[in-house]
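Q: Structure for this?
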Amino acid sequence: MSQDNAAKINLSGVRKTFAGGKKVVLDHVDLEIGKGESVVIIGGSGTGKSVTIKCMLGLLKPDSGSITIDGKDVNNMFASEREDINQQVGMLFQAAALFDSLPIWENVAFGLIARNQCSRHDARDIAVEKLKLVGLSPDVLDLSPSELSSGMQKRVGLARAIASNPEIIFFDEPTTGLDPIMADVINNLIVHVNQTIGATAVTITHDMKSARKIGDRIAMLYDGRIIWAGPTDAIDHSDNEYVDQFIHGRTEGPIKMVARR
Amino acid sequence: MINPLRPIGSAFLSFLETTGRLVMFTVDGLSHCVRPPFYGRQLLRQIIEIGFLTLPVVGLTAIFAGMVLALQSYTGFARFSAEGAIASVVALSITRELGPVLAGLMIAGRIGAAMAAEIGTMRVTEQVDALTTLSTNPMKYLVAPRLIAGTLMLPFVVFIADVIGIFGGYLVAVYKLGFNPSNYLQNTWEILTTLDIVSGLVKASAFGFITTLMGCYHGYHSGGGAQGVGKATTNAVVSASILILCVNYILTLFFFTKDVAG
């Protein structure tokens, strides 16, 4: 994938707490993501991966620190400015998050219709094109999301994420809940669409097979901090006992699973 | 030892927090009602949902309310040989009170619950977040059309309910109690003033706003999972019903003052 030196997204000292500051989820997270780069954030459940991506998307506001996209501080923007930034962003949610009340084609073309970027007729044509890109035929256009399998819903979610040819795409656990073959299909699709539209991609996952396939670079989040970041090829030689334990799925090591009483 | 004032203080702070959040939600929702872009299809969908699909249930409620009112009024007024006042009692009760209140309560159960469940489910399945990522403000897309439709369409629904309710009273008075049809209709027509109709429709508009606001507010702030959505739905119906009854008294007092002054 193409890369250049300019940072597309930059997280600097991002801190996010809940329960009135008692529960620290992100504790000074620093991460730089280059233009056209595909970065995968890995980490166990509850380590703050989803919170990180939600902060980048503007769904959550960090307590402190800064998040910039194309050099603009997105935390301290008016809502209308943030909406403009989001026009260059696509997001694939963990459970696809398709709108139940709309047919598949309107789900895919939702952003285009909502922003009046094209007529409904043209939006439908774009939906056909994007669905084809993710391997779905026009037969599904008028179906409702509940009529599709979870794998197909994920594909529709991917088609929606790329419908407006975004410059940045976020993937939230793209392969969770899918069988190994469908997971590989989704991984291949993600790599394919990233190459096709040349977008910057940020993925959060705990599926190492997926991380290795999708990412140019991997960052590991643990205890609210990025404890390791480097090229995907280097993760097997990270010299970090936390990373080693995680990628090999070992119960022995510094990461302890705390049982709740 | 636990300070006995602590739970009282905690409950008071919680009440203030909820009130503040509701006021901010209301102001935000209203501001999106008047600022473009407007989602015409969403508004049309809500207008059909509130103004058309609720007509059967509200109509049934109104016709039986009118019929019962005629029978009960007869039971009371016959003791004073004042049976002739039945048409007036039915017309005034339906237009000023029972039409808007019963329609408001029925719509709180039907529409308020449906809105809380729909928006709550969208919240817990990340569809609300998806709207934000698609550069669409959820308040503008989900809340504003519902507030507008509820406020505008409930008066229309209540007007139909008024007609059906009075017709219910007419049916019982004429076919069960043996009243003269033309006399009954003439009495109804002569007793009703513009203020009677308008006061009922103003109440309806207020109840429509309250019902949709409560449905949207509780759905939007729904907790996680099926239990959270269920709780939001219950809270929407209960809070809308209580607020409808409170606001009904305030508006009745306001129009009562107008009546006395007039």
